[in-house]
């Protein structure tokens, strides 16, 4: 009687070695999730390394210490798409405003609670470098919003940019009510922000522009 043929050895899939940019992106993605889940002080780089499936030393290699990693998260949260990748809305003023608010809410929704925590200073507290990143992001967002609502030329006016940055404060608070507190739905936040932006575009900004 022939002896049974031994089962063929099952080849285990080889783990693909990630390129440095991929590995860095993987660590950053895990950090974004963790800083959105818990306060800054409660995030451990050892746990982050375990979740990302990397040696702890790689976090230091790519980002430095935990604060440097957090700064990278802040920059990622407030980075806007390149102008070449954006579609500037057309149509009536209200249609442009609605499209602009839709873009703002998509930006918030991409990373939800992490975006809220970063923009509301729930991270490392009163950190000048964090504040500088957020201030620069507010300026860029104001210019981008003026472009989207058809007032690109107005971006040259410091007063008009300041008014749009003030509107950005409302965006952050409304995002918090929607994402973190759940007191407003996305459609409700959209209507609030669209109505306020429409007033800004049709009434407040023209008044300031005439007084220059």
Automatic annotation (TrEMBL):
Transmembrane in keyword set: no
Domain annotation HTH tetR-type: ranges: 21-81
Keyword presence, Transcription regulation: yes
Keywords in alphabetical order: DNA-binding, Transcription, Transcription regulation
Ranges annotated as DNA-binding: 44-63
Entry protein name: TetR/AcrR family transcriptional regulator
Coiled coil: none
Highest rank taxon of the organism: Bacteria
